[in-house]
């Protein structure tokens, strides 16, 4: 087995390789002045299982092209099996046609991944698990909630927060099962209440949404807002504000992917959210870190998956 990395996930890939007791396979990624990219495999991959680890994070299109070119280069090197491990799967939120005339982006990306030569695809925390049904090649959907729930629990124990006063909340209607999955890891049981925030999204304006109602009683409770990805921070902050209005005494967030846009970190830092727990599926850019951010690595989960499957 050989492990390769795109430029999107170099540090994470190195941590995975170290955990596995190996080193990254050698490749060359050249980006030309006209923004085109070229990938070259610098070692023999004939009859090898090759894993390409790379998030399709911002700039999404750029990182996707690297993945596609890795698949082609490895196929030309006669690799026996080529696997895409995408810690973050870009375009996953564009999974339905919201308005007449729109494309469905995630379907297009999936078709290209399959056509270009990937034999399997693995990722963390898809926006909608139903996306898995679009794949015709083997697809694996992993979760980082076991890591995030452990970190949240440590934080709340240090704050001496009574577990009986903790509520798990979904910041929108579509994330209920995601919140339930997190809650099972956090509480270690199936029997617990989920708080749901009703959200309206403005389809004519990007990153604009409003929290309009809350189902459940958060009065006197510490709320953990659970989501798959945060870009503008609006959904989380609006949900946190509504929880506070309804009497919540503390609010933290657990989000797998920090796909931050400009100013998101500062908005969360300035919000009533007291701690933001996330993972390293996406590399933080300069200026995106902030005091309330707690990042945990998914490298052990990736290494464990690779060890058990390849």
From TrEMBL:
Pfam families: Pribosyltran, Pribosyltran_N. Coiled coil: none annotated. Belongs to the ribose-phosphate pyrophosphokinase family. It catalyses: D-ribose 5-phosphate + ATP = 5-phospho-alpha-D-ribose 1-diphosphate + AMP + H(+). InterPro entries: Pribosyltran_N, PRTase-like, PRTase_dom, Rib-P_diPkinase. Keywords: ATP-binding, Kinase, Magnesium, Metal-binding, Nucleotide biosynthesis, Nucleotide-binding, Transferase. Residues 160-257 form the Phosphoribosyltransferase domain. One of its GO terms (biological process) is purine nucleotide biosynthetic process. It comes from Candidatus Roizmanbacteria bacterium RIFCSPHIGHO2_01_FULL_39_24. Residues 1-117 form the Ribose-phosphate pyrophosphokinase N-terminal domain. GO terms for molecular function: ATP binding; kinase activity; magnesium ion binding; ribose phosphate diphosphokinase activity. The keyword Nucleotide-binding applies. Its EC number is 2.7.6.1. This is ribose-phosphate diphosphokinase. One of its GO terms (cellular component) is ribose phosphate diphosphokinase complex.
């Amino acid at each position: 087995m050989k492990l390769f990395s795109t430029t999107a996930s170099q540090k994470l890939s190195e941590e995975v390789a170290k955990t596995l007791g190996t080193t990254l396979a050698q490749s060359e990624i050249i980006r030309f002045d006209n923004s085109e990219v070229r990938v070259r495999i610098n070692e023999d991959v004939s009859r090898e299982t090759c894993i390409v680890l790379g998030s399709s994070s911002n700039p999404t299109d750029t990182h996707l092209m690297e993945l596609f070119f890795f698949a082609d280069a490895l196929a030309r090197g006669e690799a026996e099996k080529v696997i895409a491990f995408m810690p973050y799967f870009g375009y996953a939120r564009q999974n339905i046609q919201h308005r007449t005339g729109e494309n469905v982006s995630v379907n297009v990306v999936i078709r290209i991944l399959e056509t270009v030569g990937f034999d399997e695809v693995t990722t963390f925390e898809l926006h909608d698990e139903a996306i898995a049904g679009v794949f015709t090649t083997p697809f694996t959907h992993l979760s980082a909630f076991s890591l995030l729930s452990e970190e949240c629990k440590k934080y709340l124990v240090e704050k001496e927060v009574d577990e009986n006063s903790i509520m798990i909340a979904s910041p929108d209607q579509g994330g209920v099962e995601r919140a339930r999955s997190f809650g099972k890891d956090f509480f270690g049981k199936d029997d617990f209440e989920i708080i749901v925030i009703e959200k309206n999204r403005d389809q004519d304006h990007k990153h604009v949404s409003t929290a309009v109602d809350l189902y459940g009683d958060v009065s006197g409770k510490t709320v953990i807002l659970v989501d798959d990805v945060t870009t503008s921070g609006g959904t989380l902050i609006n949900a946190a504000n509504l929880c506070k209005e309804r009497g919540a005494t503390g609010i933290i967030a657990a989000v797998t992917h920090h796909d931050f846009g400009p100013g998101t970190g500062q908005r969360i830092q300035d919000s009533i959210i007291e701690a933001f727990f996330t993972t390293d599926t996406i590399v933080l850019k300069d200026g995106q870190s902030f005091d309330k951010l707690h990042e945990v690595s998914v490298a052990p989960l990736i290494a464990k998956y690779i060890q058990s499957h390849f």
